[in-house]
Design the sequence.
């Protein structure tokens, strides 16, 4: 490959840190999203911000698309090189730079694995709460770009609630620093929050200061089993209405329970219509008190069985079983699509029922689990994309699901991002003017559209075709 | 007054809701910031979003500056009509539209008084934590535009942590809706967070959905007295290092103690060099446990006296006394300037000492109090702006304070905003490229610069002149 820009990039990082052979590029042509694939022209692994700055300047000069990529666990085709270009990897920028126990912050490079952050700070009695299911392989850079959520979101919020400051390389190769080790900062626009969740379309995050909190002293885990989805959903509402804020409040329907139990054999009740996995953390006396109250509420709302984990081993097994839901469902069929339509939490029961009706209408298999306390569901379709006729029905089903979520005051994505996959639906949520404003904002940051192009913004919005 | 645009505006709202007489305009020519004043051309009180939409369309057509104004408690000249134009008041848009106890949200118009929100939701066992000292008169619209903080920030965060969704009229008169009653939403850029703290320079907020949380069950209040500022600051560090997160952790120095005690007579120790006002909320057993631990820490770090409030009346008096600090200091002299330089909390002791040194260097009176747990201090200068020579020394002192805060990894403003007053210093914090990016962002939203012009962005950055 003799492209001038590739030669210039090679001079910056050295031959061993840039790949251009097709056999090497294929691995970076897709992420965890089925049916989206495109070859990049090159893949580069810079060692520091200064190299990234130089790389971006070259891409800016030659108008080369840049796709920053963590571990590729994205579920909305956020890291596919849609227009070719240069994939930037952060495998060499994977250091924890600083843990500040006075200011309760950790400063990291984008390539650090999320779980490494959690474990490192927990060893010091501190806590980084955002815990996407992929946390054992996902990078913090990817989490920040997608504003990842997780199981602890109800009580502790999501990634954006923990990003205090960023170093960002802009599309013109200039570097900015936002925020700092500061609990409060209102000096100008909140560029930190704007960058979080911007999916690599506004700049490249090269360093992050994250907020930590004290590690909760203990945790209680409860599994409640139901013979009806509605009763489980009612329980969720009653927990909130009773002023409880559990750390975790997960919903798992029967198809997911079966798949997870097959996969991990932790003793989930496979004949149940639904289970709720509920955890509370904090001082022991308080966590126990809350779980006792919540257990009562689950019984009052028709749980046929409740089980409080008697050991951390047991609790850990339940928690990890839930985290394997995607992997477990993925074993059932050649193709798995995991969605994350989100609704106001009061609409969880309506939404779960709607998803089931939609699955029946289009004769497709959809299992549903997710963060019920956040109204964030993961309807997951097991299918085979080689079956074109079924694939069309799957797409129509998800279109109905997005429309229903919006109708209930919800959104097309709660924590996975828009990426390329949901870009035709963004206008459904944000409206024509909202989309226009976002495009203008993108243009202000990236006038030549080299930063992860074709993500968030589609060529055109999907027209809603109602099949009756 | 026969200006065409005024006539067109009058047609929209009716004569009784637009003021153009100079005698009426003077009241809107300044806010709570000394030495900034400019007359608007007109002041308007629309009744709903649709009227605001029409008003903005007229201002867009005639290029009229628009200054949205709450109660005018801004301390950085954020609501002065620097270039004249139209002040928009929200006195007729002061309704609570919805309290949703299932989704834990409240939907409000911008003119609602912050304290009204707090009291209304507390009656339902719910909690809206942001509590700026001005909360009894400030509006929620002003709080959102400034991303206001308050005494409960250490544990509960600031306004931006509670804004879930907004309705905004853009500079071209179009209306957008952001977010929703949603715990999670990553559909496109986070325009909600971008609008919060944008000081009316990107659009006009006409409605807000705010997050509520369950009301803490109880509260404990502790006053710790010190004979040295350093010991008080060390205590702050030790509380954080011991993994305590009190609801409130306020620092008050001797000059402030004296002024507050004169003003409110609650029995503060006027001979103390500093006091810490510390509160913890939550379940009673937990709040009591934490306050007991914290009381021990205060003693270990040299508090000469500690006092736990024995009743809510006593606690309330202490809390309210702290809230009166600005009013109390304002009685001491014709002019009071309250600043809010903010540093990483580990630097509180260094910063307080630096402020005192700077006050001595320029021979000016500066009292300091503030949110020590957040690193957010309020050095407050009592002076007389008619004394030009002293005024120059005051300005040089504050310039030194900003520079010192930045040097310590801090910021020029923690919760008051940039406004017109701090705009010449913004580049010190965000850098040349950061400022440039913010200007491009402003231009994307407001190409004709009609939205609160001359705020955030100065004609030129203040050159740092070091006086030795």
Sequence:
């Amino acid at each position: 490959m003799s492209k001038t820009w590739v030669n210039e990039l090679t001079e910056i990082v050295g031959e061993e840190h840039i790949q251009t052979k097709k056999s090497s590029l294929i691995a970076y042509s897709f992420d965890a999203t089925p049916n989206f694939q495109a070859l990049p022209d090159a893949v580069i692994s810079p060692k520091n911000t200064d190299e990234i700055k130089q790389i971006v300047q070259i891409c800016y000069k030659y108008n080369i698309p840049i796709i920053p990529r963590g571990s590729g666990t994205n579920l909305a085709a956020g890291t596919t090189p849609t227009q070719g270009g240069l994939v930037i990897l952060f495998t060499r920028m994977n250091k924890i730079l600083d843990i500040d126990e006075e200011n309760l912050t950790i400063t990291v490079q984008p390539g650090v694995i999320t779980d490494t952050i959690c474990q490192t700070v927990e060893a010091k009695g501190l806590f980084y709460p955002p815990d996407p299911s992929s946390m054992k392989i996902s990078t913090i850079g990817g989490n920040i770009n997608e504003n990842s959520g997780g199981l602890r979101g109800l009580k502790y919020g999501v990634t954006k609630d923990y990003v205090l400051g960023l170093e960002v390389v802009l599309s013109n190769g200039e570097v900015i620093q936002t925020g700092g080790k500061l609990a409060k900062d209102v000096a100008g626009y909140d560029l930190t929050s704007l960058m979080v969740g911007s999916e690599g379309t506004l700049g490249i995050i090269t360093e992050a200061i994250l907020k930590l909190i004290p590690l909760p002293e203990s945790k209680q885990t409860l599994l409640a089993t139901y013979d009806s989805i509605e009763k489980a959903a009612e329980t969720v509402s009653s927990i909130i209405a009773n002023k409880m804020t559990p750390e975790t409040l997960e919903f798992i329907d029967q198809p997911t329970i079966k798949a997870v139990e097959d996969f991990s054999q932790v003793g989930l009740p496979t004949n149940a219509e639904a289970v709720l996995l509920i955890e509370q953390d904090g001082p022991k006396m308080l966590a126990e008190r809350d779980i006792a109250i919540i257990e009562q509420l689950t019984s009052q709302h028709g749980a046929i069985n409740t089980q409080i984990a008697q050991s951390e081993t047991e609790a850990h097994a339940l928690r990890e079983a839930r985290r394997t839901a995607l992997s477990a469902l993925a074993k059932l069929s050649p193709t798995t699509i995991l969605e994350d339509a989100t609704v106001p939490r009061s609409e969880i029961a309506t939404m779960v029922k709607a998803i089931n009706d939609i699955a029946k209408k289009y004769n497709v298999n959809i299992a549903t689990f997710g963060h019920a306390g956040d109204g964030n569901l993961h309807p997951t379709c097991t299918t085979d994309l080689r079956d074109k006729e079924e694939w069309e029905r799957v797409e129509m089903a998800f279109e109905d699901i997005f429309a229903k979520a919006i109708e209930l005051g919800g959104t097309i994505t709660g924590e996975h991002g828009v990426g390329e996959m949901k870009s035709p639906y963004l206008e459904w949520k944000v409206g024509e003017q909202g989309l226009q404003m976002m495009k203008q904002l993108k243009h202000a940051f990236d006038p030549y559209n080299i930063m992860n192009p074709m993500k968030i913004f589609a060529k055109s919005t999907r027209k809603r075709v109602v099949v009756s």
Remarks:
- Chain B has four domains: 4-89, 96-214, 218-327, 333-417.
- The domain at 218-327 of chain B is CATH 3.30.70.2190 (Alpha-Beta Plaits).
